[in-house]
Amino acid sequence: MSISADLTRLIVGLFLGILLPRIPLLFFTRFLNLEHELTPHPDPVPIGVPLVQRLLLMRRIHAMGWLISLFPLGMGLLILKSSPEPFGVGLVAGSAWFILSRSVPLNIEGGWGILPLSLIQEINNLREPETYCCNRQLLQWEVRAIRCLNCRIVSLDLPRPDLGRIRSDGRFVGTLRILLMDGHSVFPRDGDSVVGQGVELLGQVSEEE
Length: 209
Ligand SMILES: [Zn+2]
Prior knowledge:
single chain, mainly alpha, four-stranded antiparallel β-sheet, 7 helices, 5% strand, elongated, binds zinc ion
């Protein structure tokens, strides 16, 4: 067997292992027409029941990715059990990368997963806040944070994650972006890491999600 054929099979396996668990995130909400209750991408999303429902749905979609990741992982392990096939190595490596990238929290206080329940609870609480920033409070989730539309005060300093809306940058670029960022915002939560600060500089160049 030539090296190039082995390499091709490794890459195909790796690609499948990376792509398969992300299919729910890439396609579910975007291809089923569920847009009617949310503002179109990339507009700010008002804090309200539709947003909270969408966050809960996205949480389920992330969980679905976990389930699907078991399929390439199991298949890869089965293949490797019978022969040292590069395709099997690729499948295991790709799905293990998915599992690792989801298991490591971005910040300790932030909770576990891309959309921790504590975060959704926090956003739900903003629907009926105890204090008002101004007398025409209208909170909405912008790309970088949750702010009041009228007085611009930041209520929650948290970049908006992917909400499964059909992306304004088109299906191809949008899909690529989600594949790379895994549904996280390209903007880090403040003070996350040195890498985060680098991304922030990049973010100033392109002020879009
Ligand atoms: Zn206000």
